[in-house]
Amino acid sequence: MSDLENRMIALRRDLHRHPELGFQEKRTKSVVAERLRALGIEVHEGAGVVGVLRSGGGNKAIGLRADMDALPITETSSHDYVSTSPGVMHACGHDGHTTMLLGAAERLAKEPTFDGTVVFLFQPNEEHGLGARAMIDDGVLEQFPVEEIYAIHNLPGAPTGQISTRAGIICNSETLFEITVKGQGGHASMPQTGVDAITVGSEIVVALQTVVARKLAPASGAVVSVTEFLTDGQRNVLPGNATLKGDFRARSPEDRNAIEGFMRQITEGIAAAHGIQASVSFDTQFVETINAATPALAVYRAAEAAGCDLIKDRAPMSFSEDFAQFSAAVPGCFLLLGNGEAGPHGQPLHASDYDFNDELLPIGAEFWTRLVQDRLPPRKDQES
């Protein structure tokens, strides 16, 4: 095991012990900035942390992004580097993503054989879909313009080190919804005197399942989920009001808009059938993540050069990813890196006993290095 690999493991576990929620990544940002400065890399701090590494006189620049935030989850792991922050843990592997990119930064800074600029983007608050936009609003893409941008996410359940991606849609959008039902409360023994909001709300919940099953094309990849059902009912009081909350996922703006229309139609139609009113509001937190063709091909080449098992044109993922904001602004590619199939490495993302696989640290650093070598030409003084 190399000295760099040992130090990456130590750093990843340190970050795991000290997780921070979105827009609260004060310690994490400080650690990242300190590591970059120690490597002689130009550092800029704002909503996130940006490292700029220039080599030679080339004008081309590429961006590499890692996310830094943790989740509001109480860790149940048994390893010796569990979270020291009650109710907060790195249950998505962002500690590993950050460490892999820092490892690549060290390798590239010590052997800057490329001609051009690498911009390392360490993003806050990916989990709520707010961090990429915060960095963009900070002017990061104007101050540090890049021609292409890339990001890695680990994937539990896939073989360790396996890389997979595709051109086109790679991650779904996420839209939150809230449905308000205004019925007429009454006595539980005399339901005929009012309009029970639970009954109406339940009809809406069931009918919403027809949006994907009967109103969109098969294999659309859309998902509609009601996750909360809140009422003002009591032990013997039928509720007059109900609020349904949830989210839906889509793989195209067209499907996203269609789902909103169908949900409004269903909600208002069922309410009208009961002689009451209901309304629905939407908030798209994540847009669809779209990979550009040229960056996707570059990922294929870099994966093969790094000796990784590679799956081309993988099926899109149903989860959402804040990297979508970057890849909507600049041609980019989001890729998955297998985290392992057993034990805590195979547990689902966001599980309380999930853990990032430290075997990925040198693999990820090697992949990033190979990608830079693929996208930026060698310096003239390095050519043989």
Detailed description of the structure:
It is a single chain. α1 (3-17) runs antiparallel to α3, α3 packs across α11 and α6 (197-215) packs antiparallel against α7 (253-273). An eight-stranded mixed β-sheet has the order 1-2-4-3-5-16-6-15, sandwiched between helices. Strands 10-12-8-13 form a four-stranded antiparallel β-sheet, with helices on one face. The protein has eleven helices and 16 strands. The model has no long low-confidence stretch (mean pLDDT 97). The protein is an alpha/beta fold. The chain has helices at residues 3-17, 26-38, 94-110, 131-137, 140-143, 197-215, 253-273, 293-305, 324-329, 343-346, 360-375; strands at residues 42-45, 49-55, 61-67, 116-123, 148-156, 163-164, 168-171, 173-182, 186-187, 223-231, 237-238, 241-250, 277-286, 289-291, 310-311, 332-340. α3 links the parallel β3 (61-67) and β4.
Compact description:
It contains 11 helices and 16 strands.
Number of helices: 11
Q: What is the succession of H and E elements?
A: HHEEEHEHHEEEEEHEEEHEEHEHEHH
Q: What is the radius of gyration?
A: 24 Å
- Strand line-up of the largest beta sheet: 1-2-4-3-5-16-6-15
Largest sheet: 8 strands, mixed
Please state the structural category: alpha/beta
Q: What integer is the average pLDDT?
A: 97
How many individual β-strands?
A: 16
Distance between the termini: 30 Å
Principal-axis shape equals elongated
Instruction: Give the uncertain stretches in residue-range form.
Output: none
Helix percent reads 25-40%
What's the assembly state of these chains?
single chain
